[in-house]
Prior knowledge:
The protein is built from 3 helices and 5 strands. The protein has a 5-stranded antiparallel beta sheet, sandwiched between helices. The protein has a single domain (5-103), classed as Beta-Lactamase, CATH 3.30.450.30. It is α+β, with helices and mostly antiparallel strands. The longest helix has 21 residues, at 36-56.
Amino acid sequence: MMKSLDQILAITPGLNGAARADASGNVVDAAGQLDAESLCAVAAMGKVPLEHAAELLGLGGLRDFSFSYAQGAFYVHHDGGFVCVVGAPSKSPETIMKKIAQAAGDSF
């Protein structure tokens, strides 16, 4: 069952904004502190080159991706459309990404 964006933000400390978008990057819902339009546009633009890289590496279809940087982290879960989440830097981005995917309705 898909949780609300506020529930997704509550899955772990340090997450401060989330947005849900359709496959083209059009925002359909947002919560917390973030520029949802820009965040979803970046996620939509990044999908094609990341899918190409995954194909070249033989990794299969793109499901999730995340970026960690000095000032924070950016997580994207694809589910037909996608859920974008921003937060503080993390030492375990893979664990947070898995929790986001589970909260968005996928099971691992």
